[in-house]
Design brief:
The relative contact order is 0.10. The strands form two sheets. A seven-stranded antiparallel sheet has the order 1-2-5-8-9-12-13, with helices on one face. The protein is mostly beta strands. Helices cover about 10% and strands about 35% of the residues. The chain has one helix and 13 strands; from the N terminus they run βββββββββββββα.
């Protein structure tokens, strides 16, 4: 998969999303859920991982280095300059064959080099990939929250008399779009969650 001017999101295993920035290329090496391996060829990627399942494993490869995601968290790999950033969670990195892994924890980065030395670092500069990935993560969290609420109380997703849908778990009212109220049935996409598929949406054309 290769992007030019655009971004892409790939679901690697349940709850683990790989997001590609502009001018980024990846190659699937192994697609077994118990041993998913993706090679980063160029560009920048971010991994947004939920709590890993015992039966799944995700490893990212860049040249001679392997990054194994161990915990729920947010990770970024840049090819130029080659580096791993761990914003949340923990990863282990292997260099070459039969070498002991190096642990990289939250708030640390690791330049890909012959000798791996993790370093405490500040957050990398915000860019379009960072902002988009954060928005996608918020959207997915919101969608999952609404779905869980509807599973518990299906009536909560029923449109109110005014044609708007009320989501009590998120505190979204049925008064209409922001700033007056919450999310309406008129707009398929609204600011904040970057989502066009929030469950419970209905479409009613403007009169």
């Amino acid at each position: 998969l290769r992007t030019a001017e655009g971004r892409a999101e790939v679901l690697l295993t349940p709850g683990v999303f790989l997001r590609l920035g502009d001018r980024t290329a990846i190659r699937m090496i192994a697609n077994d859920l118990s041993d998913t391996q993706v090679e980063i060829e160029t560009g920048s990627v971010m991994v947004d991982s939920g709590q890993p399942n015992l039966n799944t494993s995700v490893t990212l490869l860049y040249k001679d280095w392997k990054v194994h995601v161990l915990q729920k968290g947010k990770y970024r790999i840049d090819a130029d300059p080659p580096r791993l950033w761990v914003r949340q969670g923990q990863a282990e990195v292997f260099a070459g064959v039969n070498k002991q892994p190096v642990s990289v924890k939250a708030g640390m980065s690791l330049p890909f080099a012959g000798v791996l030395v993790p370093e405490r670092t500040n957050e990398p500069s915000r860019d379009a990939l960072n902002d988009w990935s954060n928005g996608r993560g918020e959207s997915i969290t919101a969608d999952n929250t609404i779905t869980a609420q509807l599973d518990q109380d299906p009536a909560a997703g029923m449109p109110a008399a005014d044609g708007f849908t009320y989501y009590p778990l998120l505190g979204l009212s049925s008064l209409g779009p922001a700033p007056v109220g919450g999310y309406s049935s008129y707009l398929p996409s609204q600011p904040g969650f970057y989502s066009i598929y929030l469950p419970g949406y209905t479409y009613r054309p403007l009169l």
